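Researcher: We plan to redesign the surface later, but first we want a full-length starting point. Tokens attached.
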């Protein structure tokens, strides 16, 4: 237990006495360990513990939030009184006894930081990535191999009588390779991981990871300029889903829907995509990077069907989003840590598999591009307008992949792209990442099978 129930009860009683409509307390202790190999040497070993708690008061739909690293009762009551100073009113709630939320972890960890493997074993794993990548080609100028591990213990109390706890182990391996040929330089990155302990590395072959990233970076060196203009594009699986996540997924969070800042705010039960498109946000997928047992409001996670056969079926909804929109909560209230109030956020968000093969998609294109691996970009939250770079790109001519291209830029809007997806593949895959929004950066997973977009604006150098 991170906070005694007596203290939690006293804090919530104080909030009720100040007339708050709702109060919750989020307590968090996080152990972390980050290793970094650079220039074939141990560049960094960063370890530590962070502890704190956040108190949230709701007056109607108005959110008041404060946080501290202290747990003495006077400090916690002071935060409540400070938050409620301008909104204080006569109390109208009655204290409720806490009932423990009993939930079985669906994301077990064997070798989390609470049962850590020896440091030497971790360093050796990262060194294998470094050594193998450097051995593949003399043009490799830099290899950066990193491991990130978190062990987060969470405890939540609220004025409705909820008491919930959760343990979350995260492990991620990141590899960035830079290659140089004369005056030309290119980079590539892969970062597999999961809601798991160090055993996540059992499914990561260090040599294969090094080879995959090195192949990507060498493909870019000497590649031809990418053509520009509107054309068909094939987006491959896995991290290709970052476009749906950024340009569409954020528009389905009540964070934007409740403010009518999303173009989809009034489109429930209408066709917003081609009928071949179905999309899901699922926190229940075992040990996936974006999964959770409970959200940061204490609600058990679930699978949420966002789009079914082109029709909008659900939004991602936290408590405040539910109060403001009336849409049912989806266990999507998430935040980076105790310093943030929760908000509706994605978990594992992806377009579901279809019936087409990648070969069929490429064969249907006379002239266009094939984006095998996507990179980062920028998005306008209100409209879904995006600008994304493709990390690994090839020209398609007469239904065949002809040659590699320098990185392309895809320009469009999420709502428009959803309508122009005409083929959805079978080769489904997921890829982890970090998503930033109003409640900080949280682990999320993107994903999809390969997709054919009939037309999209491509920015290129040709």
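Model: Full-length starting sequence:
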């Amino acid at each position: 237990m991170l906070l005694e129930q007596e203290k939690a009860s006293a804090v919530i009683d104080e909030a009720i006495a100040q007339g708050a409509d709702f109060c919750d307390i989020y307590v968090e202790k996080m152990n972390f360990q980050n290793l970094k190999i650079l220039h074939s040497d141990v560049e960094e070993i960063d370890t530590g513990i962070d502890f704190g708690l956040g108190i949230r008061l709701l007056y109607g739909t108005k959110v008041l939030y404060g946080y501290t690293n202290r747990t003495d009762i006077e400090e916690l009551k002071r935060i409540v009184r400070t938050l409620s100073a301008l909104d204080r009113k006569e109390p109208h709630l009655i204290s409720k006894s806490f009932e423990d939320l009993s939930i079985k972890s669906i994301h077990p960890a064997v070798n989390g930081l609470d049962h850590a493997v020896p440091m030497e074993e971790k360093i050796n794993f990262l060194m294998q990535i470094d050594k193998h990548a450097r051995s593949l080609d003399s043009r490799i100028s830099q290899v950066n191999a990193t491991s990130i591990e978190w062990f987060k213990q969470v405890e939540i109390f609220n004025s409705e009588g909820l008491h919930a706890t959760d343990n979350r182990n995260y492990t991620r391996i990141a590899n960035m390779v830079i290659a140089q040929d004369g005056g030309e330089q290119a980079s590539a990155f892969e970062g597999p991981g999961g809601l798991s302990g160090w055993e996540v590395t059992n499914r990561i072959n260090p040599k294969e990871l090094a080879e995959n990233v090195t192949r990507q970076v060498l493909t870019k060196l000497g590649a031809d300029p990418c053509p520009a203009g509107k054309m068909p594009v094939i987006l491959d699986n896995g991290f290709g889903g970052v476009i749906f996540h950024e340009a569409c997924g954020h528009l389905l969070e009540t964070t934007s829907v409740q403010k009518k800042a999303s173009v989809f705010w009034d489109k429930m039960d209408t066709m917003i995509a081609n009928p071949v498109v179905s999309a899901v946000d699922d926190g229940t997928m075992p040990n996936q990077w974006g999964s959770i047992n409970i959200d940061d409001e204490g609600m058990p996670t679930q699978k949420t069907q966002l789009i079914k056969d082109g029709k909008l079926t659900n939004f991602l909804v936290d408590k405040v989003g539910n109060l403001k929109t009336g849409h049912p909560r989806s266990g999507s209230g998430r935040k980076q840590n105790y310093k943030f109030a929760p908000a509706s956020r994605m978990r594992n968000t992806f377009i579901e598999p279809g019936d087409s093969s990648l070969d069929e998609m490429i064969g249907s294109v006379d002239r266009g591009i094939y984006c095998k691996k996507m990179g980062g970009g920028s998005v306008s939250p209100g409209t879904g307008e995006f600008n994304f770079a493709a990390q690994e790109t090839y020209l398609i001519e007469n239904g065949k992949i002809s040659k590699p291209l320098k990185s392309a830029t895809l320009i469009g809007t999420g709502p428009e792209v959803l309508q122009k997806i005409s083929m959805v593949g079978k080769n489904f895959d997921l890829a982890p990442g970090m998503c930033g929004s109003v409640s900080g950066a949280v682990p999320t997973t993107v994903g999809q099978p390969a997709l054919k977009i009939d037309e999209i604006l491509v920015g290129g150098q040709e």
